[in-house]
């Protein structure tokens, strides 16, 4: 009789940028014969089912949360951060309880989780199956090569760089502890095999292996941007980013296709799902910049609420206002990419060898901007809060320097040789196949 299909549970909580690479991995796992369940927030069912996986959402809509007033204030003020954290804790606890229920009902052979879903390590211990931590940014494996990207710190030297990860780990443990306790109370989980320190967030970030060895830690980003540090432990594997393959059946809107065909390749400008402190001013800055430079551009409108009537006549015909289009289709048709510095957009632009300018807001975005510049694939990043038409115009002209095209092409060549989603899927199925043999 043929062996049963291996079931893999993938959990990634967050916005589209946190979910899409995991769906790309799910696609390759399903193509290789696995039964894949993806659990994330609400709003991603269509994306998940389109790749042949099953969706098990938790009752959280991260896009709605991100666009709320409290969350937007949290990006820019300490008081806002405290208020948003208190408001979201009950929602996170409910999501943690749902993750427990989903895991124990599905009973997978393997669990993959991001840092927002670490309570699934408790499920893995309960079922005695592997649970592997994953990261789209270098935040989980301590190194002396650079400080924890989330803090926006300069290079502090090997010792203090490593210490920044210890501080970050402590903060993450404090955040996980109430969620683990909620699961404990929900599932009456506390027993002799699960120490109190672990239930309070201890080593949940490290995952679980039935044999007691260190779990494989999947670092899903490119060595083109983050060369593998020499002090990473053996169980830390840089797999490359899990990119979505272009849809061969995608048909662009006629007006977009016409714009791209009737002139030189434009610059793409878009800032993803990140709210701006002052979207109106950001919009004015971008338009004023393009008036100065005379360049053709595709502007993603969601971040600024821009409409055609807002465009001055001086840029008429040179700017296309875009609602949405797959980056994997659009970026190859652009000359350069200007974006907020999310891990996904950063990797997608370099995948096609496109010079990039990062205009970050918070979190890991300044880190990716620095890494793009260090890789020689774009100018130094400019924070959105300090953008002016003159600064942005200067940077857009710098993007035309051939040296950045060379750097971006070099990064693209490195990315093309990395395991990516396909290679990761093959390794995972080999691992659980040999374990079950």
TrEMBL record:
Domain Erythromycin biosynthesis protein CIII-like C-terminal span(s) in chain numbering: 313-429
Xref: Pfam families: EryCIII-like_C, Glyco_transf_28
Keyword DNA-binding among UniProt keywords: no
UniProt keyword terms in alphabetical order: Transferase
Example GO biological process: carbohydrate metabolic process
Entries under PANTHER family matching the protein: STEROL 3-BETA-GLUCOSYLTRANSFERASE (PTHR48050), STEROL 3-BETA-GLUCOSYLTRANSFERASE UGT80A2 (PTHR48050:SF13)
Name the UniProt record assigns to this protein: UDP-glucose:sterol glucosyltransferase
Lineage: Bacteria, Pseudomonadati, Pseudomonadota, Alphaproteobacteria, Hyphomicrobiales
């Amino acid at each position: 009789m043929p062996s049963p299909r291996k079931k893999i549970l993938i959990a990634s909580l967050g916005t589209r940028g946190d979910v899409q690479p995991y769906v790309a991995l799910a696609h390759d796992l399903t193509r290789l014969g696995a039964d894949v369940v993806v659990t994330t927030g609400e709003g991603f069912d269509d994306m998940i089912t389109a790749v042949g996986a099953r969706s098990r959402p938790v009752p959280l809509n991260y896009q709605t949360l991100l666009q709320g007033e409290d969350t937007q204030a949290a990006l820019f003020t300490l008081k806002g951060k405290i208020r948003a954290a208190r408001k979201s804790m009950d929602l996170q606890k409910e999501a943690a309880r749902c993750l427990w229920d989903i895991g124990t009902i599905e009973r997978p052979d393997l669990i993959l989780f991001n840092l927002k879903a670490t309570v699934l390590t408790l499920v893995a211990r309960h079922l005695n199956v592997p649970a592997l931590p994953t990261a789209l940014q270098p935040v989980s494996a301590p190194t002396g090569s650079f400080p924890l990207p989330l803090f926006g710190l300069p290079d502090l030297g090997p010792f203090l760089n490593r210490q920044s990860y210890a501080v970050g780990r402590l903060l993450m443990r404090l955040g996980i502890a109430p969620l683990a306790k909620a699961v404990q109370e929900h599932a009456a989980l506390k027993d002799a095999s699960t120490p109190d320190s672990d239930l309070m967030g201890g080593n949940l970030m490290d995952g679980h292996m039935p044999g007691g060895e260190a779990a494989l830690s999947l670092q899903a980003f490119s060595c083109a941007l983050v060369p593998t540090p020499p002090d990473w432990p053996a169980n830390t594997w840089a797999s490359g980013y899990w990119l979505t393959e272009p849809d061969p059946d995608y048909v662009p809107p006629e007006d977009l296709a016409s714009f791209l065909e009737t002139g030189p390749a434009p610059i793409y400008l878009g800032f993803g799902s990140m709210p701006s402190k002052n979207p109106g001013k950001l919009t004015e800055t971008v338009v004023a910049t393009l008036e100065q430079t005379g360049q053709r551009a595709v502007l993603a409108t969601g971040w600024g609420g821009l409409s055609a009537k807002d465009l001055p006549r001086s840029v008429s015909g040179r700017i296309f206002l875009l609602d949405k289009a797959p980056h994997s289709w659009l970026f190859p048709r652009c000359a350069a990419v200007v974006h907020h510095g999310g891990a996904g957009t950063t990797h997608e632009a370099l995948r096609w060898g496109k010079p990039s300018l990062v205009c970050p807001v918070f979190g890991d975005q300044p880190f990716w901007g620095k890494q793009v510049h260090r890789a020689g694939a774009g100018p130094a990043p400019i924070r959105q809060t300090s953008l002016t038409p003159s600064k942005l115009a200067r940077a857009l002209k710098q993007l035309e320097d051939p040296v950045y095209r060379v750097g971006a092409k070099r990064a693209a060549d490195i990315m093309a040789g990395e395991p990516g989603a396909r290679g990761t899927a093959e390794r995972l199925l080999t691992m659980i196949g040999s374990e079950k043999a």
